[in-house]
Every structure is written in structure tokens, then in C-alpha cells.
């Protein structure tokens, strides 16, 4: 039988943790157990259909992803937290996508890389909890290990996984990052929330490449975020015209979601646009040398795709842009690039202007 004083202490601790989390810049904190059996079944079906494409890391770690106690022995609870990232000062997303000479970058990537920031805040939160309860076992994560972030966020009540497979919150939409603390602390659980997508299919209908093949089912191989960020080789020709001027990620399914009318602006200056990335000129970006790419995007999540894929993505956007002397000249300047991957996409882009179908 659980001692009532212990239960009251745990609930008081949970309330304190939520206050501490807010003081560290998080907007919400929840606690889940470690039973991910339902999510494990869904993951196995997704992998079996090949929807992960070349993201072999999704199956590399076996059961570690769906069994937190295997990844971090002793884990019995997962503390989940979310942090808003929508930058109020950024240029209007739809307007940028409507101007073909500009490049569109997913709004989460306009500022500094969120990984280090959130990890540091989670460590500080963990240390604050330790100060209150004594030594505990823990490890923090933010999109940095085989962790079922969305499933854990859903179990802990931060939101529900919408038809576009992003986590949605009724009061805050979906523009937020997630982070986790695996712990051996026997905390009380926070309640999950119900699904509120209803009959809406806005995200499915808007997807440029029809990557949301059914409600709650995403074929990553068709997703522009996958194609521009995760894929390292040639982007399939069939998807190139559909990509428009999206050069890093794609926000369409979130931009059109009715729940994002409630999205809150970020309070973190680190997430505000740098280097004019909220509405950059494609020709200017395409002229960057590798040294400029590395210097200008220092501390940015964009650097992870590397210079070649950066040029590959911009070449496609230039191919989709309205024909102009400046666009064609920019592409011709890269025809002899040392990378075969870049040359291939530049050649395709030029063909769109010289021999349009």
C-alpha cells in the first residue's frame, strides 16, 4: 500500500517541477510511464512498409527506441517538456513561398540549433529536482537518441499526434520542440489528452507531394522535409517540381492546421531569424562558398545537411523559379561544380528554363 504522505509529496513535487520548467523557458511539462507497446506496433508497421526511406537509424537500435528501460537501465518514468519556437519577427511563410526567387526554410531552423539549448535547460531542471529529492538516476534527450518523442509527449499529456504525425496542443498548436528526462524517480503520471483532429483533412490535402498517405500515416520518402534534410543522394525527379522553393524542410501541413491559430510566439531570442534566412534570395545563397556556408550557419541546424545537399536543394528551387537572366546565370556558374550530385541537380534546373515542358 502506497503511503498517502508519499503520494502528496510526489504531487507537490510535480507541481514544483512544472514551475521550475516554466522558469527555464519550457511552456509545459508532463510525466509518462514507459509502456510504449502501442507505439512499438505502429513503428514496426511503418518500418515494414519502408516509409522510413534511407533513415536506417529508425530500425538500427532494435527495441531501445520503444523500451526506455533498455536505453537507460532503471528508468520507470519519462519527464517530457515542450518549448515554443515560432518566431514572431519572421517574414510571412506563405508570402515567402509565393515569391519564387526567395528560399523557404522551415521556421524551426531560422535561428540557433535547439538541441544544445534544450539539453542544457533539461540538465538544469534535472539538477533542480535532485536538489529537492536527493540523488536520482536520469539522462536527458532532445531528438538525440533512439527515443519515441511523440509517443511519450502524447502519453504525458503534452498533446496528441495529429493526422500529419506532429504533436498538437489545443492551446498552443504544434510549433514546439520536445525534450525528455528518463528517470528512476517514481513520479505521479500526468493525464493524456484526447485526439481533436476530428474530420479535418487540411494537412493531408495541402501536402505538396501527398506524403500523408492516410490519416496519421506519413511516407517519409515523399516528404519534403525528408528529401531536403535526411536524404543524402539525388532527389527523385518526380518530386522536384512539387518542392517549389522549399530548400530546408516544409511547414505546409502545420501552417494550414486550424489549431495553429493558437500557436504562441517564442520567448527565446536564440530561435529568431539569423542571416536573413526567413526570406533569403536564392541566387545569393547559391553563391556561398563552402567556407561561407559553414561560417554563416555556425550554430544552425541547417549545417547538418552539409554544403553539397544545401546546393542540391537550392538548385531545385532555382529550377522551379520564374525564368530570369539572373537565375540562369547563377545556375550556369555551378555547372562545373566538383560534386556530381550538385552538377546533376544544376543541369536539371537549367533544363527547366531552357527547355521547359
Automatic annotation (TrEMBL):
* Cofactor annotation remark: Binds 2 [4Fe-4S] clusters per monomer.
Cofactors named for this entry: cob(II)alamin; [4Fe-4S] cluster
What domain of life is recorded for the organism? Bacteria
Q: Where is the 4Fe-4S ferredoxin-type domain?
A: 186-217
- Residues annotated as catalytic: 143 (proton donor)
Q: Where does [4Fe-4S] cluster 2 bind?
A: 207, 223, 250, 253
Q: Which UniProt keywords apply?
A: 4Fe-4S, Cobalamin, Cobalt, Cytoplasm, Iron, Iron-sulfur, Metal-binding, Oxidoreductase, Queuosine biosynthesis, tRNA processing
What is the name attached to this protein's record?
Epoxyqueuosine reductase
Amino acid at each position: 500500500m502506497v503511503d498517502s504522505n508519499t503520494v502528496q509529496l510526489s504531487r507537490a513535487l510535480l507541481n514544483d517541477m512544472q514551475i521550475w520548467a516554466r522558469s527555464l523557458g519550457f511552456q509545459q511539462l508532463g510525466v509518462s510511464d514507459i509502456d510504449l507497446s502501442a507505439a512499438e506496433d505502429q513503428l514496426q508497421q511503418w518500418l515494414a512498409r519502408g516509409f522510413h526511406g534511407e533513415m536506417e537509424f529508425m530500425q538500427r537500435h532494435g527495441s531501445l527506441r520503444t523500451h526506455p528501460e533498455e536505453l537507460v537501465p532503471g528508468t520507470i518514468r519519462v519527464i517530457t517538456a515542450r518549448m515554443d519556437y515560432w518566431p514572431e519577427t519572421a517574414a510571412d511563410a506563405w508570402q515567402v513561398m509565393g515569391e519564387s526567387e526567395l528560399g523557404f526554410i522551415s521556421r524551426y531552423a531560422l535561428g540557433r540549433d535547439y538541441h544544445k539549448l534544450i539539453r542544457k535547460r533539461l540538465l538544469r531542471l534535472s539538477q533542480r529536482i535532485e536538489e529537492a529529492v536527493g540523488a536520482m538516476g536520469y539522462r536527458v534527450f532532445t531528438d538525440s537518441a533512439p527515443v519515441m518523442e511523440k509517443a511519450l509527449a502524447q502519453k504525458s499529456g503534452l498533446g496528441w499526434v495529429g493526422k500529419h504525425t506532429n504533436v498538437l496542443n489545443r492551446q498552443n498548436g504544434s510549433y514546439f520542440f520536445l525534450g525528455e528526462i528518463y528517470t528512476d524517480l517514481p513520479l505521479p503520471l500526468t493525464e493524456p489528452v484526447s485526439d481533436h483532429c476530428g474530420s479535418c483533412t487540411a494537412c493531408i490535402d495541402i501536402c505538396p507531394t501527398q506524403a500523408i498517405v492516410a490519416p496519421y500515416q506519413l511516407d517519409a520518402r515523399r516528404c519534403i522535409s525528408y528529401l531536403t534534410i535526411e536524404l543524402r543522394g539525388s532527389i527523385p525527379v518526380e518530386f522536384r517540381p512539387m518542392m517549389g522553393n522549399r530548400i530546408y524542410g516544409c511547414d505546409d501541413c502545420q501552417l494550414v492546421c486550424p489549431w495553429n491559430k493558437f500557436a504562441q510566439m517564442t520567448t527565446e531570442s536564440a530561435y529568431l531569424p539569423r542571416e536573413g534566412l526567413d526570406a533569403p534570395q536564392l541566387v545569393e545563397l547559391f553563391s556561398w562558398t563552402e567556407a561561407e556556408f559553414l561560417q554563416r550557419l555556425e550554430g544552425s541546424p541547417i549545417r547538418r545537411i552539409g554544403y553539397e545537399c544545401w546546393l542540391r536543394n537550392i538548385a531545385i528551387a532555382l529550377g522551379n523559379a520564374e525564368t530570369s537572366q539572373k537565375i540562369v546565370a547563377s545556375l550556369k556558374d555551378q555547372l562545373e561544380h566538383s560534386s556530381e550530385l550538385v552538377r546533376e541537380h544544376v543541369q536539371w534546373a537549367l533544363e527547366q528554363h531552357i527547355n521547359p515542358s
